[in-house]
C-alpha cells in the first residue's frame, strides 16, 4: 500500500495518524498490521485494541521490555513474526500509550525496511490530563473498539 494520504509527515517513517485514521487504514487495507508496542502489564491492565470487526487482532510486541525498561532486543524479529517482511509494502501501524514510544518503533521498522510504518497520535490512552489521569484522548477516547484481556 502506498503512503496514507492524510498522514502527517514525520522524520524517519511514513507519518502520524489520528486514532480514527489508523482504524480507517486498518479497515481499508486487510494486509495492514496494528502493532501495539506497550508493555505486557499495559496490555493486561489497561486493555488492547479489538480488531475482531476487521477479522484480525493487534500484534502485541513490546518496544521496551517490562520491568527492565530496556529496549526489546527482539523487537524487529517479533515484528517479522506478525507476517510483515522488509520490502513487502505492508502498512504497519504502531500504537503505544500516548504516541511517543510508537515513534521510535515506526522509525526502527522503517530503517529495517518494513512498512510504510505509521505512528498513532495520542496512542491508546493519551497524555495525562489536567486531572492527572489519562484517557481523555487516544484510541479509547475516540470510541474505537478495545477489550480488557
Characterization of this structure:
23% of the residues lie in helices and 17% in strands. Strand 1 and strand 2 form a beta hairpin. The termini are far apart. The relative contact order is 0.23.
Number of DSSP E strands: 8
Largest sheet: 6 strands, mixed
Shape: globular
> Helix/strand/pairing class, anyone?
alpha/beta
| Rg calc | 14 Å
The portion of residues forming beta strands comes to 15-25%
The percent of residues in helical segments reads: 10-25%
Major beta sheet, strand line-up: 1-2-7-6-3-5
User: Which residues form runs of ≥5 with pLDDT under 50?
Assistant: none
Determine the number of helices (DSSP H or I, runs of at least 4 residues): 4
**Topology pattern, helix = H, strand = E:** EEHEHEEHEHEE
Span between termini:
31 Å
Average pLDDT figure: 93
